[in-house]
Amino acid sequence: MAAVISDSPPNPSCKIMTFRPSMDEFREFNKYLAYMESQGAHRAGIAKVIPPKEWKPRKHYNDIEDLVIPAPIQQIVTGQSGLFTQYNIQKKPMTVKEFKQLANSNKYRTPRYTDYEDLERKYWRNLTFVAPIYGADINGSIYDEVCIAFYEVSLFQPFFKEYCT
């Protein structure tokens, strides 16, 4: 995991990079994140991290219902004939429990489908009628303390000032 020293910026093409940390590196993810940044992962704004085989995700999620989603986003899409406009509306805060109830409601529930192509067709066909709601950016983690494996994009914000051109 040694950083490479060079005169040119790392990852000049701003490609999304994939990383495969060892379990020891994964346990100290903030240090590994610094390594990822030294390789230029921040230039793409996102990176893929494949956890080591020994890592096991949380066994249940029964205790996350009280986590608050501070700013759920509703995606409004309007248009027709191939010309569409999309904008986001920030909704009032809601708990994971409230979001789950909304996601399982008749309005937002996944429709019946025959295969993934059918599901995708239904998604795009109904996008202007039913505006999806996204519940990202929660404070806290849905992972156990010993298995926190993913980072928030906000950790990269100091580096977003260097936009790729």
Order of helices and strands: EHHEEEEEHHE
Taking the sheet with the most strands, its summary is: 3 strands, antiparallel
State the distance separating the first and last CA atoms.
28 Å
Low-pLDDT residue intervals, each spanning 5 or more residues: 146-165
Arrangement of strands in the largest sheet: 5-4-7
Write down the overall mean pLDDT. 81
- Strands, total number: 7
Task: Indicate the overall shape.
Answer: extended
Q: Could you tell me the radius of gyration in angstroms?
A: 19 Å
Please give the count of helices: 4
User: What share of the residues lie within helices?
Assistant: 10-25%
* Class derived from helix and strand content: alpha+beta
Percent of residues in β-strands: 15-25%
What can you tell me about this protein's structure?
The protein is extended, with a radius of gyration of 19 Å. With 165 residues, it is an alpha+beta fold. Strands 5-4-7 form a 3-stranded antiparallel beta sheet, with no helix packed on it. The longest helix is centred in the last third of the chain and has 11 residues, at 116-126. The protein starts with 16 loop residues before the first strand and ends in a 31-residue tail after the last strand. Strand 4 and strand 5 (83-90) form a beta hairpin. It has helices spanning 23-27, 29-38, 96-103, 116-126; strands at residues 17-19, 47-49, 68-69, 73-80, 83-90, 94-95, 133-134. The chain has 4 helices and 7 strands. Helices cover 21% and strands 17% of the residues.
